[in-house]
Amino acid sequence: CTDIATVNINLPQPLVLSLTQNTDSICAGEQVMLSPSVSGGMPPYTFIDGTGSVVIPPLFIYPNQTGGYTMTVIDACGTQITGTVMINVMPSPQSGALYNNGSGCEPLEVHFVELSGTDSLSFIWDFGDNENLSLSSSPVHVYDEPGLYTVTLTVTNQFGCRTTYTYNDWISVYPAPEAQFTWSPEFATIIEPSVTFTNMSTNGTLYIWSFGDGDSSGIVNPTHLFPGAGSWPVQLIAISNAGCRDTVMYPLEIKEEWTFYTPTAYSPDNNGQNDLFIAFGHGIQSSGFELVIYDRWGMTVWSTDKYSEDLEMTEGWDGRSNNGKIVPVGVYTWFVRFKDFKGRVHEKTGAVTV
What we know:
The protein has strands at about 15-20, 25, 30-40, 45-50, 55, 60, 65-75, 80-90, 95-100, 105, 110-115, 120-125, 140-145, 145-155, 160-175, 180-185, 190, 195-200, 205-210, 215, 225, 230-240, 245-255, 260, 280, 290-295, 300-305, 330-340, 345-354. By secondary structure, it is mainly β.
């Protein structure tokens, strides 16, 4: 006897994998998303990346070089299929930076240069001092404040790929001193032309004074005797321990002032000492000068209109009257009229003992 039974066996469709990427051209290290589309086979499916690791799609990869990148799918029956996509990794720009003056005193001007020399690149410079960025290939930047500055250069090529170069503490800017001074007395005259200077500078360790009369000093707080009246340009250079300098200059006025002196006694005995009665002073004009000596009866004994601030050029009374005779010992009255340096007329009288 024979009995026949029939069994229907359903076989799955062939396993099919379609692997796609969201982009096929990137810069090195950028993200690419791989998306598998699976049909056929026997679910559930297992997804394995190119390193052999089980993953859950979509798969994010970060290629650094051009090539094929794969994903493998295995169904419940152990059937597997592999898909491959081609990713093109664009080259990164190659550059770098140099400077011509990386350290110095504030304000410091630095010339930067990028090293690629390629016109197809674009640049962004960040100088590290929170000032404006620069898009130039060879910018010039001025650092106004002291400190250490980190410089970054970002270079972008025609593919949009970027390379950033960071130079830590690349620029050193030293603080500059600030030169300043005062003086006393504030208004000096030719009578007392000695002036004391007080150094008010900051951040300085060395000082150079120039007083405008050819003299100088390295003393912190000097005292200087000026040679005459006028405006003297006093200059102070303050130098820091880093060699930074600052200079300040003020015109210091030594005011003109007239003075007049005569001796109260003299001895015209030709012994070489105190033989002449001479009127002398400062700030007196030679023109319009008049000196007259009177005896006790008011008679003119001697007179002159010659005057010079050079004592050797000034005519003095030698104890003789205008007729050449030696006057008797006694007290004589003198009268003088002169103009000061401003042209003002002055008259003075006094007594001298012969």
